[in-house]
Specification:
The structure holds two protein chains of two kinds. Chain A is an alpha/beta fold. Chain A is 43% helix and 20% strand. Chain B is built from 23 helices and two strands. Classes of the chains: A alpha/beta, B mainly alpha.
C-alpha cells in the first residue's frame, strides 16, 4: 500500500520531468485537449472527432477534458496558462475568446494562443417562432420600426448576443435581447412562442424547422451547402456576417519543431474521408483552415467584431 | 416498425449485455458520492461512437436509469446520498438503517425505483407528443411559479421554522454568486474567474451531505457506529407493502414525470415535491425524517420517473430536459440523428428501439438491485475508520471531476465544515440544496418575465397571468402555502 501511494504521489513529478524530453521525439506521452464547454455540445463534438483522428496519426492517446464555466472563460484561461510543450492543447469556438477578452477582465488575450487549425464554419442565424408573423426580414424590419424594443430575441451565449446587436443595428431597429442558459432552453422558449425570434447557429436549423419555426436568414457570406433554401442576410441587403469556427490552439510559445509535427499531422488528417463524414453526420459544416489560414481568419474577424463589441459594451457588462 | 421487429432487435444477448453493463455502471457511479449518471455518460460517450446508434443509446440510457437509483444505496447505508436526488432518501433511509432495518429500506428503494422507472418510460412511450406540447407551455411565468412552489415545500419539512428559513435563504444566497444570467453583472465574485462561473450544485451537495457526515463520523467513538444486522425480510413483503400504497406510487411517478419535463428544474425539484406531498397526505407525518418508508417510496418513484420524461422534450423537440439528456443528445447528433418530430418518421428504428429498450433498463436495474442488496448491506460491516477515508477520497475526486476544478473541491470542503456545524445546531440541510437549485430559476425567470413584459409594454402582473397554466400554477402555490401553514399549526 505504501509503495502504491509513493508511486501515486511521485507521478506528477515524473510527468513534469518527462515534459522536458527532446522535442523531436514528440509526442512521448498522452496529450490532453481542453474544451471549455460541457460534454455533448458542438465544440465538444468537434474536439472529440479531431482527437480521435489525431490520436491515430500521432500514435498517442488524446484525452478530451471538459473544463466548462463562465461562458468558456475558465477553460480558455486554463489553456492559456498551460505549458507550451504540445501536451496541452485547446479546442473552442472562435470568437468566444475574443468576445470574452474584450468584455471582461480575463487573464488571456489574443497573444496567449497560437492557432493550429480551424475545422468548421458555422454561421449564426435568426429564426422566428412557429406561426409567427415575423417570419421574413421585411416583416421584422417594419414591425421593429413601428414598435421600438417590442421584438424579443433570445440568445444563449456571447456570440448570440453579438449577432442580435449587429442584426438590430443593421436593420436600424431596437430589439430586446434575452439570455438563456443553453441551446435547449432557448429552443424551448422559441418553439413555445415565449420569445419572437432566436439568435442561434445553423446547427439548430433542423429542430426549429421541424417544429414549425422559420429561418429568417444566416449571417454567412454565401448560402450553405446543407441548407440551400435559407437566404443569407447579405442577399437580403443586410451586411452581416457572423459565425463560430472551432479552432485548435496551443498556448503561445510552442517550440517550432513541436508545432511543425502538430500542424503536419492536422493537415494530414484534414482530408480523411471518414472524419469529414463524422462532421457531416453531426450537422457541422466542415471547413479546414491550416495554421496560417486560421490565424488570418481570426485576424480579419477580430477587426470586424471589435467595433460591434465596443459600441455595445454595456450590454455585456450589465446595467 | 412493428412491435415484433422491435422485440427481435431488443431480445438479443448483445443488447441485454449492453443494457446490464450500462445499468451496472450507472448504479456504481450513482452510488459513489460526487459521481452521477451524467459523469458516467460523458465518460462512456466516446465508446458509443462506434456502436449502432440504438445500442449506444441504450448503454447511455442504462447508465442514466441506474445512476438515478445508485445514489440511494449509500444514502440509506451511510447517510451519504451519492447524488442530490437521493437526499430525501437519506432522510428516511438512514434512520431505518439505524433501527437495523437497512435491508428493508433498500428493498423499498429498489422496488419504488422500479415502479417509478416503469411509469416514466411508459408515459414516454404512450404520451410523448402531448407531453412535449405541455413542456413548451412553460414560459418564464410558469417556470417562476413552479420554482416558487418548490420553495414552499421547504416549509413542509419538520424542524424549527426559523432554522429552515435560514437554510433556504443561505441556499438562495449561494445561488446568487457569479455572473447574473440576465444582466451579466458580477455578484460576490471578487474578480475571481472561478467565482464568476458560480457555485454549482454538485460541490454543495458533496460538502453538505458527504463531507459533513464524514467529518462528524471522525469524532465518533467506535461503539457509536451502526451495526450490521442480518434481518430477514422477504422481497415480496416489501413489494406488497408498496402495492398497498399504489396511490402514492402513481402520484409520485406522475409528479416526477411532469416536473421532470421542465428543462433545467427537472429531477431535484420533482423529488422534493413528491417527498413533501407524501408527507402532506401521510397518516403518519410525525414519522417522517425518522424512517418512514413512505418517504422512500415517494422520492424513489419520482426520481426514476424523471428518466423517461426528461427524454420527452429531447426526442420530440430536440430540447434536452436535463444535463444528462443533453449529453445523450450530443451522442445522437454524432450519429447523425436529427432530434425532433421528424425522428419518429425518419429513424423509427432508433426511436422505437430506444423507447422500448428503456423498459429493459428498468428490468435490469431491478434485477441488479434486488440481487445486490444482500451484498450492499455488507458496507455496514466495514468499520468507520475505513469508510471515512474511502468516502472522502471519492468525494474529493467527485468534486474535482465535475468541471476538473480544484476550486469546486475547495467549495465542497468549506461547505463540509459548514454542514457539520449546521448538523450540530440542527439546521436542516435539504432546504439549502433546494435554495441553490431553485434560486437561479426563480430569479432568471422573473427577470425574463420583466424584460418581456417591458418589451410588450404591459404590466408585469398581466404578463405573468396571461396563460391559464400560469394562473393554475399560482393557485397551486397559494394552496400549498395554506396547507403548509396548517401543517405547521398542527405539529406546532
Amino acid at each position: 500500500m505504501k509503495m502504491k501511494l509513493a508511486v501515486l504521489f511521485s507521478a506528477p513529478f515524473l510527468m513534469a520531468a518527462s515534459g522536458t524530453a527532446l522535442a523531436q521525439d514528440y509526442p512521448t506521452k498522452n496529450i490532453q485537449i481542453i474544451v471549455p464547454y460541457s460534454a455533448g455540445g458542438g465544440g465538444d463534438t468537434v474536439a472529440r472527432i479531431i482527437a480521435d483522428r489525431l490520436s491515430d496519426e500521432l500514435g498517442r492517446q488524446i484525452n478530451v477534458v471538459n473544463r466548462e464555466g463562465a461562458g468558456g472563460e475558465i477553460g480558455i484561461a486554463e489553456i492559456a496558462r498551460s505549458q507550451a510543450d504540445g501536451y496541452t492543447l485547446g479546442v473552442f469556438g472562435y470568437p468566444d475568446n475574443f468576445v470574452l477578452e474584450n468584455t471582461r477582465d480575463t487573464s488571456f488575450d489574443s497573444n496567449s494562443f497560437e492557432y493550429l487549425a480551424a475545422f468548421d464554419d458555422m454561421p449564426m442565424g435568426i429564426f422566428s417562432s412557429p406561426g409567427s408573423d415575423l417570419d421574413t426580414l421585411d416583416a421584422v424590419r417594419s414591425y421593429g420600426e413601428e414598435n421600438p424594443g417590442a421584438i424579443v430575441i433570445g440568445e444563449s451565449g456571447a456570440l448570440g448576443l453579438l449577432n442580435i446587436l449587429a442584426f438590430s443595428e443593421e436593420l436600424g431597429i431596437d430589439t430586446t435581447p434575452i439570455r438563456y442558459s443553453g441551446g435547449g432552453e432557448l429552443m424551448n422558449a422559441l418553439l413555445g412562442n415565449h420569445i419572437d425570434l432566436a439568435s442561434t447557429s445553423s446547427m439548430s436549423h433542423d429542430p426549429i424547422t421541424d417544429a414549425g419555426g422559420t429561418p429568417i436568414g444566416f449571417a454567412a457570406a454565401e448560402r450553405m451547402e446543407m441548407f440551400p433554401d435559407v437566404p443569407t442576410f447579405k442577399e437580403q441587403g443586410v451586411d452581416l456576417e457572423m459565425g463560430v469556427s472551432r479552432v485548435m490552439v496551443a498556448p503561445a510559445g510552442l517550440p517550432d519543431d513541436v508545432r511543425d509535427i502538430l500542424t503536419a499531422a492536422l493537415d494530414e488528417i484534414s482530408t480523411n474521408e471518414a472524419m469529414i463524414e463524422n462532421f457531416h453526420s453531426a450537422s457541422i459544416p466542415y471547413r479546414y483552415l491550416n495554421a496560417d489560414e486560421a490565424s488570418d481568419m481570426v485576424e480579419r474577424s477580430n477587426s470586424v467584431l471589435s467595433p460591434v463589441i465596443e459600441e455595445n459594451l454595456e450590454q455585456f457588462n450589465g446595467d | 416498425m412493428d412491435l415484433l421487429s422491435i422485440l427481435s432487435v431488443l431480445l438479443t444477448p448483445s443488447v441485454f449485455l449492453v443494457v446490464f453493463a450500462g445499468v451496472l455502471i450507472g448504479i456504481v457511479v450513482g452510488a459513489i458520492p460526487g459521481l452521477n449518471g451524467a459523469i458516467g455518460i460523458s465518460l462512456l460517450l466516446p465508446l458509443t461512437f462506434t456502436m449502432e446508434p440504438q445500442i449506444g443509446l441504450l448503454l447511455l440510457g442504462g447508465i442514466y436509469m441506474g445512476g438515478m437509483y445508485g445514489g440511494s444505496i449509500t444514502a440509506i447505508l451511510i447517510n451519504v446520498p451519492g447524488d442530490v436526488v437521493a437526499a430525501p432518501v437519506a432522510m428516511e433511509g438512514y434512520p431505518l438503517t439505524q433501527q437495523g432495518r437497512s435491508k428493508e429500506a433498500l428493498y423499498y428503494s429498489i422496488f419504488s425505483s422500479m415502479f417509478g422507472g416503469f411509469i416514466g418510460v411508459l408515459i414516454l412511450i404512450l404520451f410523448t407528443p402531448p407531453l412535449a406540447r405541455l413542456a413548451l407551455q412553460f414560459g418564464p411565468a410558469e417556470m417562476f411559479f413552479v420554482s416558487l412552489s418548490g420553495l414552499v415545500i421547504v416549509g413542509a419539512l419538520s424542524g424549527s421554522f426559523l432554522k429552515a428559513a435560514f437554510a433556504v435563504l443561505f441556499g438562495l444566497f449561494i445561488s446568487t454568486i457569479g455572473i447574473d444570467m440576465i444582466t451579466g453583472s458580477e455578484r460576490f465574485t471578487f474578480g475571481s474567474a472561478d467565482l464568476r462561473s458560480g457555485i454549482s450544485v454538485v460541490p454543495v451537495v458533496l460538502g453538505l451531505f458527504c463531507f459533513a457526515e464524514m467529518f462528524l463520523n471522525i469524532g465518533k467513538k467506535p461503539g457509536e457506529q451502526v451495526k450490521y444486522r442480518d434481518q430477514s425480510i422477504k422481497r415480496m413483503t416489501v413489494v406488497m407493502s408498496i402495492l398497498r400504497k399504489r396511490l402514492l406510487v402513481w402520484k409520485s411517478g406522475i409528479i416526477g414525470t411532469v416536473v421532470g419535463l421542465l428543462p433545467g428544474v427537472g429531477t431535484t425539484l420533482a423529488v422534493f415535491m413528491s417527498y413533501g406531498e407524501a408527507k402532506r397526505v401521510s397518516k403518519q407525518p410525525e414519522l417522517f425524517e425518522k424512517g418512514n418508508p413512505e418517504g422512500i417510496i415517494a422520492a424513489e418513484s419520482a426520481n426514476n420517473a424523471t428518466v423517461g420524461s426528461s427524454m420527452v422534450p429531447l426526442l420530440a423537440l430536440g430540447v434536452p430536459g436535463s444535463p444528462t439528456s443533453a449529453i445523450i443528445a450530443g451522442a445522437l447528433v454524432i450519429h447523425g440523428i436529427i432530434l425532433g418530430p421528424s425522428l419518429f418518421v425518419n429513424r423509427p428504428d432508433v426511436a422505437f428501439t430506444f423507447l422500448y429498450g428503456m423498459l429493459l433498463t428498468v428490468v435490469a436495474m431491478t434485477i441488479i438491485g434486488a440481487v445486490g442488496i444482500k451484498y450492499f448491506s455488507y458496507i455496514l460491516k466495514i468499520r468507520m475508520e475505513y469508510i471515512v477515508p474511502t468516502v472522502l477520497v471519492f468525494a474529493l475526486f467527485g468534486a474535482y471531476s465535475l468541471r476538473n476544478s480544484l476550486f469546486d473541491v475547495f467549495i465542497a470542503i468549506v461547505l463540509g465544515i459548514a454542514g457539520a456545524i449546521f448538523k450540530k445546531i440542527e439546521v436542516p440541510l435539504a432546504p439549502i440544496i433546494i435554495g441553490v437549485v431553485l434560486g437561479p430559476l426563480i430569479e432568471t425567470n422573473l427577470a425574463r418575465a420583466m424584460r418581456i413584459a417591458g418589451a410588450r409594454d404591459i404590466p408585469l402582473i398581466q404578463y405573468m397571468l396571461s396563460s391559464p397554466l400560469a394562473i393554475g400554477l399560482l393557485v397551486m402555490v397559494v394552496a400549498l402555502m395554506v396547507v403548509v401553514i396548517q401543517m405547521r399549526r398542527k405539529t406546532g
